[in-house]
Amino acid sequence: MIRQLTLEKHLQRYSETVTQGLAVAAAVDAIAVAAVEIAELTGRGALSETSGLATGRNSDGDLQRDLDVQADAILRRCLGKLPIAAFASEEMREVEIGAREARICVAIDPLDGSSNIDINMTVGTIFSILPAPDDLDLAFAQRGTAQLAAGFVTYGPQTSLVLTLGDGVDIFTFDRAAGCFRLARRGVRIPDTADEFAINASNRRHWDPPVRAFIDECLAGADGPASRDFNMRWIGSLVAEAYRILTRGGVFLYPSDARPGYGDGRLRLVYEAHPIAFIVEQAGGVASTGRERILDLAAHSLHQRVPLIMGSSGEVRRVEQLHCDPLPAVSAPLFAQRGFFRL
Ligand code: AHG
Ligand code: MN
Ligand code: MN
């Protein structure tokens, strides 16, 4: 019965099989311990002295809520007990060099989707674990393919930890009664095609033509080139969107757009796109900028942003095709005459 397998046992088996396994397993275990504390904190909502109120801006200019800072502190405390060569966080301007002889580096988004905290929506923690390079200044300038492990935790109805150690994707759900993470889904696979797309449609007028063309195809549904109807979701929390796509397929787009500062989209390569892309590919999906494979990219700066289009391979490949072979410009897009979307 898979439910009997705990995260602890799973990590123990893994640590005995690969080099760096012990260090990776210890880091994932520390993140799981921190996640239980963060789940408790986010679960208290307005009852806790911390809240979703903004307390300032982080180094990337994003609104920083006190729960972002609290989650960061909890993860740093739990990971701080381990030998980690280099540590990076969305909430820290610079990389923190630790034990130079250590074998791994860790990058985190302590609280993803934090704009959702005060509306009681699922938020989460994203993590990426990399080998320690000789030159630690390049710790987070490695390609996404270098990752040893990656995953995310959702703080929602379930506290679930989605994990890849490089050999598929497993989901462990926290069993509050037993006080441990138990295996809930083993070898998760993303369906190759799906009828659900997720994008912040309020930005349509800022999108590049290939993204508009793809979304117009989805909106045209059975009347258009896709010959089937679609559904739309937008939660504003990457971890929640990723969990849905791992559960029933679909495509998520946070493309670059014409707004100032969004020329490379909104999501950060090192601690959002790389780990999510590793999970998505390990589950049989595709993660792309629209033109390039996310995992082939290496960051030139810690908080570098990147367009992220990920999910079911059929839909992501269609977006890539529209980037490579753009449709002929039309004078009035599909919906101009219906007024559904204006240019
Ligand atoms: P974070 O809270 O770590 O800054 O991440 C928020 C991200 C991502 O989770 C979500 O998909 C996206 O921002 C939502 O962006 P918009 O608010 O622009 O829709
Ligand atoms: Mn985030
Ligand atoms: Mn965040």
Summarize this, please?
By secondary structure, this protein is an alpha+beta fold. 28% of the residues lie in helices and 22% in strands.
Give the CATH level 1 class of the largest domain: Alpha Beta
Task: Provide the low-confidence segments as ranges.
Answer: 335-343
- Per the principal axes of the C-alpha atoms, what is the gross shape? globular
Strand order of the largest sheet: 4-3-5-6-7-8-9-10
Order of helices and strands: HHEEHEEEEEEEEEHEHEHEEH
Mean pLDDT: 93
CATH fold title of the largest domain: Fructose-1,6-Bisphosphatase, Chain A, domain 1
Number of domains: 2
Please identify which CATH superfamily of the largest domain we are dealing with: Fructose-1,6-Bisphosphatase, subunit A, domain 1
Bound molecules: 2,5-anhydro-1,6-di-O-phosphono-D-glucitol, manganese (II) ion
Report the count of strand segments.
Answer: 15
Quaternary state, please?
Answer: single chain
Largest sheet: 8 strands, mixed
| Portion in beta strands | 15-25%
Helix segment tally: 7
Verbal overview:
The protein has 343 residues and is of the alpha+beta class. It has 2 domains: 2-185, Fructose-1,6-Bisphosphatase, Chain A, domain 1, CATH 3.30.540.10; 196-324, 3-Layer(aba) Sandwich (D-Maltodextrin-Binding Protein, domain 2), CATH 3.40.190.80. 28% of the residues lie in helices and 22% in strands. It is built from 7 helices and 15 strands. It has helices at residues 7-15, 21-44, 66-79, 209-220, 238-248, 269-282, 313-324, and strands spanning 54-57, 63-65, 86-89, 96-97, 104-112, 123-131, 149-155, 159-164, 169-175, 180-185, 196-198, 231-233, 251-254, 286-288, 308-311. It has an 8-stranded mixed β-sheet, sandwiched between helices. The protein has a 5-stranded mixed β-sheet with strand order 12-11-13-15-14, sandwiched between helices. The protein has a two-stranded antiparallel sheet with strand order 1-2. The longest helix is centred in the first third of the chain and has 24 residues, at 21-44. It is globular, with a radius of gyration of 20 Å. The chain starts with 6 loop residues before the first helix and ends in a 19-residue tail after the last helix. One manganese (II) ion is lined by residues 68, 90, 109, 111-112, 114. 2,5-anhydro-1,6-di-O-phosphono-D-glucitol binds at residues 62, 90, 109, 112-115, 200, 236-238, 254, 266.
